[in-house]
Amino acid sequence: HLCAPDLFDLQNNLAQQIAAFAMESSPYYRELYRSQGIRPEALTDRDEWAKLPILDRSTVKANSAHFRTAEATRRNTRNALTGGSTGEPLKTMHDMRIPAIALAWRMYSWWGVTPYDNIARVGRWNFSRIATLKNDISWWPSRQVYLDAALISDETMQVFHRQLNRLRPRLLEGYVGALLEFADYLERRRLTVPPPVAVATTAAPLTEPARARLESVFGAPVYDEYRGSEFGWMAGECAQQNGLHVFEDVRRFEVVDASGAPAAKGDVGDLVITDLRNRVFPMIRYRTGDRGILREAPCECGRSLALMEQPQGRVTDLIRLPSGAVVVHRLMAMFSAHPDAVRLFQIHQLKDYSITVRVVVGDRLDAHSQIETAVEALRTRINREVPVRIEYVDSLPYTGGKTKYIISDISSSGI
């Protein structure tokens, strides 16, 4: 690993190089940067870098044909499609010359998983027969099995359970919601699986109740990772489970406020990310729609990669109050002090501003009182401006294996 100062210099140089390349080779960036008088040679200075325009999803979508560079060919590009959870699906391109899987294996090694180990995955998988054969060959001699999160049923989970017992994978990786659904299935049927070395989650914030539940059912530590269709792997937890290491040698992370200015250190803000290696479809200072915090303190593991707190959910994951106040930060953590009290929860704000907290109760004998305590803390936090009620449910809906933790029926401009 590079020491922190060398990593800092490497990232500055890579950032300057990708911006200069984009200005030369991408029609979109050429026009944008020239119109604003951007001098690529000055961009190793982070203050100058912060002056670059921030992209959003609608901008990329409207100009995607002009993002492609002269290096993009059919052989070295792969389309990347978002699921459209924001209501605005997006297609970008990955540079196939970059061994992106190496980022995953570096992260897996932190958990004791090697490239020779079998892996079980739960996500959106819809392989054709030819694609399945190619995938099996590419991973040989290790084996991988898949559960399609978009088609979860007792029948598909039964098949997956049999595969896990036969293959005994050392890593179980997948969408948080789908893994919780599979955990529920195992408990309902009183089934077990051979404990893996690690369980890894993605696609949604990993709440402490969800982590505790998955660790209990699968008998292994649960690690969070941050990835997205636009960039692939971006950050992941190490064995300390105390924040996610940012992959600074391939991605640049920034946290900005609503105006695009750098957020104060330790403040939650919008995540703005740059892919430092993609030379076919540059993504420079892209606002992901997620919110997060970058930490200053290094990790106790000794790695020089910076730490970020777990992403705080989407920019749209918020509560609006009649007074005009907006509650965003740490809504996902409202049950962190009582992880055994709940299995799942969801916050739903209705059009009249009232709030319903739906809860699937956990195994604690005093779960109901712990839940009441957490919800009372939320009432206090919002100064009791609106009613907050608890609704106990047996389950929460999954969409494609993903759980929506915060739902608002109020538009950004109010009712």
Structural write-up:
This protein has 415 residues and is an alpha/beta fold. The protein has a domain at 319-408: ANL, C-terminal domain (GMP Synthetase, Chain A, domain 3). The protein has ten helices and 19 strands. The strands form five sheets. Strands 4-3-5-6-7-8-9-13 form an eight-stranded mixed sheet, sandwiched between helices. Helix 8 crosses helix 9 (208-218). The longest helix has 22 residues, at 4-25. The mean pLDDT is 88.
Summarize it:
With 415 residues, the chain is of the alpha/beta class.
Keywords:
29% helix; GMP Synthetase, Chain A, domain 3; four-stranded mixed sheet; alpha/beta; eight-stranded mixed sheet; 10 helices; 415 residues; globular
Total beta strand runs? 19
Topology-level CATH name of the domain at 319-408: GMP Synthetase, Chain A, domain 3
What Rg is obtained from the alpha carbons, in whole angstroms?
Answer: 22 Å
Helix content: 25-40%
End-to-end separation: 52 Å
| CATH class type of the domain at 319-408 | Alpha Beta
Uncertain ranges: none
Order of helices and strands: HHHHEEHEHEHEHEHEEEEEEEEEEEHEE
Spatial strand sequence of the major β-sheet:
4-3-5-6-7-8-9-13
Query: Can you identify the CATH superfamily of the domain at 319-408?
Result: ANL, C-terminal domain
Overall pLDDT metric: 88
- The DSSP helix count reads 10
Task: Please describe the biggest sheet, giving its number of strands, its sense, and whether it closes into a barrel.
Answer: 8 strands, mixed
Beta-strand percentage?
A: 15-25%
Helix-and-strand structural type: alpha/beta
Any idea what the CATH architecture of the domain at 319-408 is? 2-Layer Sandwich
What is the overall shape? globular
